[in-house]
Amino acid sequence: MSANPAPATAAALSLLMLVSGFGIPVMAALNAALGRHLGSPTAATAALYAVGLALSLAVALIAGLPSAATFRSAPPQLYLGAAFVVFYILAVTFTAPRIGVGNAVFFVLLGQVIAAAAIDHFALLGALRTAFTLRRGLGIALMATGLYFARRTG
């Protein structure tokens, strides 16, 4: 994929990610409430994945699945993303009822920004390389400062 898509494509992709971002705190609040209702953040996480698996399989079947051989040929470490997402869902389902959805997601966002900058700078895991510049560092520092003030409750 090109590092510089056409402006209309870049705008559409940016909008897609913005809308996806809206879903993260909604998912966190819903799953935290389910965890409270069930009395178990772990059970709520398992339920989220059961529903997610069913929906993902339905979409994959409609869109078309790669062959079993293609799945088997993928390097095993590429499947570790699942461990990260399970950790995230468990952590946010456990933490959001205790510190608030906003605070939980603010810290997640800060972690995402820092990790994304490192992944891009070093072109890790096949990512497009985007150098970490002073300007980018200042932007991240401003975001961190904004998150600090946004999460304060007094």
What report would you give on this structure?
- The protein has helices at 7-38, 41-63, 68-73, 81-99, 101-122, 134-151.
- Helix 5 runs antiparallel to helix 6 (134-151).
- 78% of the residues lie in helices and 0% in strands.
Give the helices and strands, then pairings:
Layout lengths: L6 H32 L2 H23 L4 H6 L7 H19 L1 H22 L11 H18 L3
Helix pairs in contact: 1-2, 1-4, 2-4, 4-5, 5-6
The low-confidence parts are none
End-to-end separation in angstroms reads 45 Å
Radius of gyration: 18 Å
Main sheet, how many strands, which sense, barrel?
A: none
Total domains, how many?
Answer: 1
Count of alpha/pi helices: 6
Number of strands: 0
Shape: globular
Secondary-structure-derived class: mainly alpha
Determine the fraction of residues in helical runs and give it as a percent range. Answer: over 70%
Q: What value does the average pLDDT take?
A: 90
Secondary-structure element string: HHHHHH
Features of the shown structure:
single chain, mainly alpha, 0% strand, globular
Short account of what is shown:
The chain is an all-alpha fold. The protein has helices at residues 7-38, 41-63, 68-73, 81-99, 101-122, 134-151. The chain is globular, with a radius of gyration of 18 Å.
